[in-house]
Structure formats: structure tokens, C-alpha cells
Amino acid sequence: MATVLSVSGSPSASSRTGRLLRHLDERLAAQGHRVIPLDVRTIPAAALLGADFRHPAIVEAAELFARADGVVVATPVYKASYSGVLKALLDLLPQYALTGKTVLPLATGGSTAHVLAIDYALRPVLNSMGAAHIVQGWFTLDKDITAHEDGSVTVAPAAIEALAQVVDQFSAALGRTPHLAAAS
Description:
Helix content is about 40%, strand content about 20%. The chain has about 180 residues and is of the alpha/beta class.
């Protein structure tokens, strides 16, 4: 099937956003996709904040984006927008790093007041980077995600049902993107 780059834009190693994303990665892998996780927080801060385009970690991240057929971007919402570490990485990627790719934007946050952060903050950036198709994203409330000490996560039934639907739509859309159809 397709290669999916799964990008966690959380600055925290124990974030609900990251754990939720890795849980969803399992669903994509079960559907036959090759999933490559990328936690932006593991990229050296000096490279991100110093805009070191030639740093090996930045070069590697750009190569992962280039090789992916689809990209899942998950971020916690801070101050009505996506995370700063995610912004720093997106700024260092080539202008059209998402050209020909199907993208699924996901966000987590403490209040439904931030539900539009996907459409008003994240989607315009993804679009400007040339995404071929940005599927319907999803916002999940922090209260619907329970992180366990063993690294696993439990998601409230209504939230997991909605997330499963958007992940399945993303998976289906991967087979319809122009670059994949041309490769067949």
C-alpha cells in the first residue's frame, strides 16, 4: 500500500497527542500501510530554532516527507494554533514538501473553543506546502484521551469512533491521489 509519515508535533515525550497518534498508526499499519513515526521533539532544538537547513536531522526529516505518499500531522493546540515545534519544522521543509501528498490533520486540546485550529491555523499551512488532498481532520478533547503509565492510551468510545472514520477516509484517499495512480 502507501508509505505514511506520522508526525507528532507535541513538545512532550508523554503527551496525549503523541500517544493518540501512535495508537492511530496501528490502525493504518493494520490496513497495510507502512507507517514511519516522526516525533518533532526528537529533532535537536538548536537545529529547529537556528534554522539549520543542513543539520542531519532536518535533512533526514525532509527526506522522510519526500518519500511519504501520505502524511498524518498531529498537534496539541496552544493559544488557538498548532505547536511551535511543529511550526519550526514546517518552516524548514522545502516550500512544496507536501506536493502530491494526501494529508490528515489532527489536533488535541482542552477546550472545544480550539476546534477550529485545524481549519484556520494548520490547514492553510499544509495547503501552502502543496498538499494534493487534505482530508477532513479531527479535533479530540484532552479529557477523551487517557494515557497510561505503560505508554498505552485509552480513547473515549465516541472519540475513537470518529477518529477511526477520519483515519479510514485518509487511508482510502491514499489510493486516489494522482501520484499513486500514475505509479500503478
